[in-house]
Amino acid sequence: MNELPPWANGPFELLVHAEGHLLNGEDFDRRIALISFDNAIEVAIATYLTLNPIQRGKRTYKRDDIEKWLDNYHTKLEFLETELAARGIPWHVDKSHILWAHDQRNEQYHGGQKGIPEKQILALIRKAALWVFSVLYEVPDAEQRLAQAILNASPPDPPQHEEEYDRAIDREYGMVDLGDQSYYVSELLFAVDYAAYRETGGRLCAAKKNDEDPGKAK
User: Fold this and answer.
1) Same domain for 184 and 147?
2) pTM
């Protein structure tokens, strides 16, 4: 998977931010996801319009038109409509649907409505945001890139005990007393130095196997 051009990173990071909140699924996260996906559409268009023509396939636009299109959300969608027509691309998500989702976003951000966005709205605005990004920045695998970015941002799985290591360490070192408590050495080693736990457990297990089958010992 090739790297995105640097000017696409900002709009893409908004998609990642929105997707992260959407996956969390809490009420607050669903509100932020709606706002963020909607922002991602606006930022994707605004960023594209401010690029040098060489960075957008040598497409040029009149300065007055750019200033007009950058004015607000509705005029940005007017640019998108013009651009789609010029490229012969149909609306993948109906313009009226995008505007409806935008109105729901405004209620969350500016208005008095603080209800939880419906899943249908979130699915719609997510689909629109990914589509707008993929069209303007010519990234056909935007969905896959987003999934990979979320995966990369996820914390690694916590380390797990190895039963074989636990038995080998505790057979060799037993238990230790700390204050009024007694602990298996494997438990303490796992908690304070996981690398040492694995090294010690692996070494003891290997030694035990060699003792059981001396012919395989090196």
Assistant:
1) no
2) 0.71
